[in-house]
Amino acid sequence: MSEGRQYADKKAEISKSNKLIDPNRNYSNQIASFNLLSRQEERKQTKLIWHSQKRIIYQLCILDSYHGSLEFCLNSDLKEIVLFGKDNFSLDIKLQLSESLKTIDKINKEIKRLNQIYKTTKRAYKQRDLEKRICFKRIHKFNLLSTFNISKGFLNQHINNLIKLTEVKGIFSEQDTNKIKLAYQINKQYKELFDNFICSNLKLVARIAGKYSSNRNSSYIARDDLIQIGNNGLIDALERFDYRKGYKFSTYASWWIKQGILKNRSTQYRAMRMPIHVLDAANKIKKLKDRLKIENKSLPYTEKIAEICNLSVFTVKNALAVLRPVVSLDLKVNKNSNDSFKIFIEDKKTEKSDSRLETEELRQIVRSALDSIPEREKQILCLRYGLSDGKAHTLKECGRVLNLSKERVRQIEKKVKRKLKHVSKGLIKLLNNN
Question: Are the C-beta atoms of residues 285 and 309 closer than 8 Å to each other?
């Protein structure tokens, strides 16, 4: 009885230690501690995050120093800093953003000119007028920079770099230093709000990742990997989310999480990389094919599938070919033989024995035919058709070597061909092919 009790206690301890070691269980317990947000709380939080980012951009907009401003960094590397809706950086977008940067440069020059006038002006009403004009220019500049969907990581890094530069005397004025410190304080609040909101939505990622972690497909991915990929998608969604459009964040984020998981699965866990839209179309066609097979109790024709999908037969064939499994060349043909598939594939680089024999026979005919003509004529043929070095020369090049005119070389060549006509038809055929 005591031995049974000891065995049961040991088993309980092992199961308890396994629960503690299991990372998925620990992660589930951690995210369970975060409360889900209601619709009103979600809207309030996203509104605060959105306005915090805009406040940071505004503080960086009104800096007098150009080297600390956002547009200086945007001019250096636009593609690494700005986020795009579908991860594409097309020429139209690039032109649009570069035009905005040119306008911002013109506004900066105008603000600089107005500041110089402001310093020299002593009348109060003119100074008030200049202050208004400078304020309007800065608001215009802020509106243009707000169209750039600037990433959170870049803003954080840029502000940290500016804070380090404020410690060095002479780089920024006192006003600019105060603005940078205020931007740093706003950024701390922004990061805290951002992190708290992400933690509140981790359950959404876990739920979506659970749908894709089953081992039904050949491209199986572990659940913890899927959660990590989904978390990156959640961060991307929050960086791009605009609360003013009125829809729920969870609806918007679900699309980004699913896209991140599907993209990772299609790129990393396939032997050949395929675009996501191609894989989606192929999977839809395959589902339709399987449904028709069950309904009709026979394999459907490609033409019928194309007719239902309103696609061409060629497109349907290509889509189904995408889903074919990749077979290794070293795979054995069957269990009884040791032969692999690569033995049955034709090697096009290796010359065939028939063509090799034919070429050797032609060479013998050429040698015997060339021995029957004078040296100069033989030299012209060798140069013209590359019989000696494998490189064919023009009439002009042959004339330069033999100190003859181009026309004379052509006449000799024609004469030699006529002379060799009775010797061998194979040689004339070879020369004509060359």
Answer: yes
Q: What is the DSSP letter of 150?
A: B
Report helix, strand and coil shares of the chain as percent, to nearest 5.
75, 0, 25
200 token code pair:
């509140």
The Cα 132–Cα 141 span in angstroms is: 14
Cα distance between residue 384 and residue 394, in whole Å: 6
> What is the C-alpha to C-alpha distance for residues 166 and 177, in angstroms, rounded to an integer?
6
Check: CB of residue 100 under 8 Å from CB of residue 144: yes
Structure token pair of residue 17:
């230690």
Q: Detail the DSSP E strand segments found in 103-158.
A: none
- What's the predicted TM-score (pTM) here? 0.57
User: Per-residue pLDDT tens for 63-98?
Assistant: 766 555 665 555 555 544 555 444 444 555 566 666
Tell me the C-alpha distance between 45 and 206, whole Å: 21
* H or E stretch covering 334: none
Which DSSP state fits 326? P
The secondary structure of residue 342, as a DSSP letter, is: G
Q: What percent of the chain has pLDDT over 90?
A: 0
Span 106-134, pLDDT tens digits? 777 787 788 778 878 877 887 788 888 87
pLDDT for residue 8 is more than 60: no
Domains for the chain: give ranges and CATH numbers.
39-199 (no CATH), 203-269 (1.20.120.1810), 275-345 (1.10.10.10), 353-433 (1.10.10.10)
The two three-digit tokens of residue 136, written as one number: 């309007």
Rounded to 5°, the CA angle 160-165-168 comes to 145
DSSP at 172: S
Q: Are 234 and 198 in contact (CB under 8 A)?
A: yes
Closest CA to 162 of 149, 181, 138, 146: 181
In the 8-state DSSP scheme, what is residue 245? G
Long-range interactions of 315-323: CB distance < 8 A, separation 24+: 316/285, 319/278, 319/281, 319/282, 319/285, 320/282, 320/285, 320/286, 320/289, 322/274, 322/278, 322/279, 322/282, 323/282, 323/283, 323/286
**DSSP code per residue over 13-62:** HHHHHHHHH-HHHHHHHHHHTSPPPPHHHHHHHHHHHHHHHHHHHHHHHT
CA–CA distance, 258 with 209 (Å, rounded to integer): 8
